[in-house]
Amino acid sequence: MLISADPSDDQPIYQQIVDQLRQLVAAGTLQPGDPLPSVRQLAADLGVNLNTVAIAYRELAGEGLVKIKHGRGARVTAAREQRFDEEQVRKLLVPILSKMILAGKTDREIVGLLREELHNIRGDKT
Amino acid sequence: MLISADPSDDQPIYQQIVDQLRQLVAAGTLQPGDPLPSVRQLAADLGVNLNTVAIAYRELAGEGLVKIKHGRGARVTAAREQRFDEEQVRKLLVPILSKMILAGKTDREIVGLLREELHNIRGDKT
Amino acid sequence: MLISADPSDDQPIYQQIVDQLRQLVAAGTLQPGDPLPSVRQLAADLGVNLNTVAIAYRELAGEGLVKIKHGRGARVTAAREQRFDEEQVRKLLVPILSKMILAGKTDREIVGLLREELHNIRGDKT
Amino acid sequence: MLISADPSDDQPIYQQIVDQLRQLVAAGTLQPGDPLPSVRQLAADLGVNLNTVAIAYRELAGEGLVKIKHGRGARVTAAREQRFDEEQVRKLLVPILSKMILAGKTDREIVGLLREELHNIRGDKT
DNA sequence: GTGGTCTAGACCACG
DNA sequence: GTGGTCTAGACCACC
Q1: Is pLDDT larger for residue B120 or for residue B84?
Q2: Among the CATH numbers 1.10.10.10, 1.10.20.140, 3.40.50.1100, 3.40.50.920, which is that of A13-76?
Q3: Regions of chain D where pLDDT drops below 50
Q4: Which of A69, A72, A75 to mutate to test the interface with D (most CBs of D within 10 A)?
């Protein structure tokens, strides 16, 4: 099982699924053309409702990261570069960095932690 | 006015207040022992509901970043008393990094962007 | 009532809602800044489920045509030009034009019908 | 081969077949009385399920565009027998036009695009 | 009050 | 089998 869902998390379940699938694609664990688990299958595995998974898949389809074919499942899209809003990313980053600074982390430590996470994500790449 | 509230932002207003206050403390603009504006005062200045500000203060108190004294306002706590959940920070980081990777950013670019934001936050230091 | 929903239509209800709201914005009947009916209100008016309307609103938010604010309803976004996929539009157009040609319509008649519809949509504009 | 089926298209395959056959008749490439390829033949050529083609043929028969004779294949009908639901065509047109208007297209541009597509369809005429 | 999320369970469309 | 849509009804988050 590559995906998990935690109902007690702050993030809604469908968003957790989106984030994890995006991570798997970023990592290369899921390659373009690879099939995603069926909506029903994943819902059963995670113990959540079918609709919750369907919403996650629809979101990913809207981003262009996966392509859904009626009656034949969903697959990772041929790698197009995703758009992303740099301004928004910076805004998301600020509170996280603030927290780390308040925890007494040095710049060196913060950059180190970031590199670790980058490596964790990219590590699986084929 | 060091704080602003933008109702058209994606973040809820109380969260915006929390983030900005945290950033001010991280930057050193607000020092341990400094008083926060009163809930009424800040609510009036921002033109938001009094409850909204109160929730923000309670959140910061929960983090240990400020200490609320009944009837005597809130003050920034000593740095020692703050908690830091590294696991949570990493979890917040992963979706952001995944998006940047999918957008084709190199590690170098990502680290560069992070350093810029670190500098922005720390730059304000008195 | 400016919006209607027909469960017997080929289009799913949420799509009908999306299309009609888009049309109202294109017509200028709904101006930037105007509030949309609340999810619950519109659902009650149309006699459909709350979720069905919520899906429609989420879709419009994703397109950037409306902005949803938690706890404070949805409003038409300040007019940014929408992106659109010309290739896709052409592909949608072909079957429609084929049908009209098969019905014996001349080019003149087809263009006339198109101009009529354009006028119908744009007519309400302030 | 005048027809193709693209499983990665948004349209369902049976619909692609319907649209293409209709276009061929509109263009005059298929004339009244001409036989359609057999269901088995077309399914084999396109590499799709036999049922999928059968559904497409049934749809065209329902429109009155072709006539299916048991055991003797399908033929394009005389032009007279075709129905045309103008109201439906207008309803299909509105969402497309709305999108183009919101994309900032002028009436001139929209009519121009339509004329191009009309010409593309009619150009094939024998 | 508002919108957001989730569930359980139903029925339909596609191949 | 697959995904798509819808319902009824619940509970939560924001202001």
Answers
A1: B120
A2: 1.10.10.10
A3: 124-126
A4: A69
pLDDT of residue A107: 95
Which residues, in sequence order, are CB contacts of C14 under 8 Å at separation 6+?
A: C52, C53, C55, C56, C59
C-alpha A94 chain-centroid distance: 20
Cβ-based contacts of A110 with chain B (< 8 Å): 114, 118
CATH architecture of the domain formed by B13-81: Orthogonal Bundle (1.10)
Binning chain A into helix, strand and coil, the percentages to the nearest 5 are 55, 5, 40
Six-digit token string for C122: 């744009």
Residue closest to B113 by CA, chosen among A26, C123, C112, A114: A114
* Domain spans of chain C, in order of start: 13-76, 86-123
Backbone CA torsion sign across C86, D3, D93, C45: negative
pLDDT, position D78:
79
Interatomic CA distance for residues B79 and B65, integer angstroms: 8
Q: Find the range with the poorest average confidence among A33-42, A86-95, B117-126, D45-54.
A: B117-126
Count how many residues are written for chain C.
126
Question: Phi and psi (nearest 5°) for B119?
Answer: -65, -40
Confirm or reject contact between A67 and chain D (CB < 8 A): yes
Bases in strand F with any atom closer than 7 Å to a protein CB: 1-10, 13-15
Q: Which residue is nearest to nucleotide E7 (CA to C1')?
A: A49
In one letter, which amino acid is C35?
P
Express each pLDDT in A57-83 by its tens digit: 999 999 999 999 988 999 999 777 888
> Using an 8 Å Cβ cutoff, are D95 and D75 in contact?
no
Q: How confident is the model at residue B125 (pLDDT cuts 50, 70, 90)?
A: very low
- Chain E footprint bases within 7 A of protein beta carbons: 1-10, 13-15
Q: Is C126's pLDDT higher than 80?
A: no
A4/E5 CA-to-C1' distance in Å: 18
Q: For residue range A77-123, what is the model confidence (pLDDT) as tens digits?
A: 977 788 888 999 999 999 999 999 999 899 999 999 999 999 999 87
- In the prediction, which pLDDT does A124 show? 52
Q: Which residue of D has its CA nearest to A77?
A: D8
Q: Which residue is nearest to nucleotide E2 (CA to C1')?
A: C71
- pLDDT tens sequence across B38-72: 999 999 999 999 999 999 999 999 988 999 998 88
Please check whether residue B61 touches A, CB under 8 A.
no
Whole-angstrom distance between the N-terminal and C-terminal Cα of chain D?
17
- Cα–Cα–Cα angle for C96, C97, C99, rounded to 5 degrees: 65
